[in-house]
Amino acid sequence: MTEQVVAAVRTGPHQTEFREYPMPEISDEGAILKMEVAGICGTDVKFYAKPPIEGPVIMGHENIGYIAKAGKTFQQ
Questions:
Q1: What's the total number of domains in the chain?
Q2: Contact, 71 vs 28, CB < 8 A?
Q3: Does the model's pTM come out above 0.85?
Q4: What pLDDT digit, counting tens, does each position of 13-43 carry?
Q5: Are 59 and 45 in contact (CB under 8 A)?
Q6: Domain membership of residue 32 as a residue range
Q7: What are 23-26's contacts with CB under 8 Å, separation 24+?
Q8: N or C: at which end does the chain have fewer Cβ atoms within 10 angstroms?
Q9: With 0-12 CB in 10 A as exposed, 13-18 as middle and 19+ as buried, what is 13?
Q10: With bands split at pLDDT 50, 70 and 90, how would you rate the model's confidence at 69?
Q11: 62 near 41, Cβ under 8 Å?
Q12: Residue 62 lies in a domain
């Protein structure tokens, strides 16, 4: 079974679902972060109530985590 990650997805005004997605592929210069905490900002709150775009949107971009996997040439 492929490893999965979970995201909070805004599916419509005042509607959020937790959805599973396949773990992203790691590039040589990239990293996979293990999230400990993910927050939303004031702009996310506005988008939650009245989205500026249609379709599902993964919310939250203020994150705290650690490097779980690093690519071959990744530099901190």
A1: 1
A2: yes
A3: no
A4: 888 899 999 999 999 999 999 999 988 888 8
A5: no
A6: 4-70
A7: 26/69, 26/70, 26/71
A8: N
A9: exposed
A10: very high
A11: yes
A12: yes
